[in-house]
Amino acid sequence: MPRTLCYILLFFGLGTSLLCAEVLHGVCSRVSDGDTLILTQPNRKELTIRLYGIDAPENSQDYGKAAKARLSELVSGQHIRVVTRSTDRYGRIIARVYRDELDINLTLVQEGCAWHYVRYAPQALELAEAETLACVGKAGLWQNPAPIPPWEYRHGARPALPNPDNHPYWISEHNILHNAQCKYFGVTQRGRYVAEPGADTTNCRLCNGTAAEPTGTFPTWWNLLLLVLFFFLLPIVLIRLLIIRARGEG
Question: Has this prediction a pTM greater than 0.85?
């Protein structure tokens, strides 16, 4: 595609996005968590606003209550401006929120109250830079040397439980086996460390369970593939060579 055409498409795409954006005004009547608030418009209609491009710790997470409290300090009872982006599957309005000229989304990331939500805002470079600076400066949640992102927390990740006996395996409450190289090793609140896995366990697909290969070796499925290629392709190659040789002699 010619570069000029790409620029034209980008221009119209940005223009369409700006035209579709709606600016709402009202008072923040309530804060649900570190990245969600309730906007009460002048007609008293209430709208749930999810802050665009950020993800704050859940209320039940470490620093979750602090993040909620900070958002409350910034916007509760305040007149705010909401620049809409889209609507999520829960019906919440995804938006940038401003109090006067203060960018609330950016401020929360700068102060270590939220992550840059890369999955849904990959082009928000100012949020990415703010997160990097907050991490380097150990602001807010970054005082924890290994904070758990809320999107992982929502899928069951928890701070790793102590493993004083250095057991090599972890069996979750669902009887799923994880070895010490798996990112889910010991991170659920319900499970047990074991020295040897039980016979009825199902290996974790992420770490391959007990079959996890030492670093620098081919995994089992690679070995199987090589064997299949060897025994099926080698005869075909040999037959092909014999045919070529027979034609040459003829």
Answer: no
